[in-house]
Request: fold
Amino acid sequence: MSSFGERLRSLRLEHNMTQEELANCFGLHKTRISQYELGKRQADDEMKTKLANYFNVSLDYIMGKSDIKQSAEQILNDSNTTIALHSDETSLDYSDLSDEAKKEVQDFIEYVRHKYNK
Reply:
């Protein structure tokens, strides 16, 4: 799994942002973002949450604990996911996920089916 710094850098680059641009969004100096990305400094929980919200990813994803970008709440709020969960066949594309992430998604789908199909 990736580290927080690696994930932050990847998300920043996906959004075509410089360290300075990202830092400005949070009232920080660009060296703080650089330190986070290089693992020389750890963001506190509040900053990790703010960054996850900014990039619209789960806290577990930005911290490198999961390869699934969306939180459970985001997945449930996605109308396509809702349709897939209520159909007999789930047609999700797992091709870009690691085996561990695939298992997490499958477990989550089973949990939701069990909880909401009583």
Observations:
- DSSP finds eight helices and no strands in the chain.
- The chain has a mean pLDDT of 81.
